[in-house]
Predict the 3D structure of the following.
Amino acid sequence: MKLKVTVNQTEYEIDVEVEQETHSLPPIVIGGSGAAPMAAPAPSAAGAAGANAVVAPLAGSVARILVAEGDEVTSGQVLVVLEAMKMETEITAPADGTVTAILVAQGEPVQGGQALLEL
């Protein structure tokens, strides 16, 4: 392949050999593919998730806690805001209930699957 390059207002023609590279990457599947679902992450010792626990969907740090123990919450209400890679993720209540325990503190790092609070 011939290329024309200009350097300091002087044109040069150069020959370039291009080699074909082959990469064998696994296919990327987004959404359901009919295969068996992936297992949920095992709860860590840092916060084993109980039946009524609201868990972190990803690793990050706790940016804000918007509820207190004893607060009544409604389904969809934002409970905690996590920050990961300068992006904020709002964690919402899965159902109506009362906050019985807050298991994390503001600024604390958390892992995906770790319990944040219990309803």
In short: Residues 43-47 have pLDDT under 50 and may be disordered. DSSP finds no helices and eleven strands in the chain. The first strand starts at residue 2 and ends at 7. The CA atoms of residues 45 and 114 lie 9 Å apart.
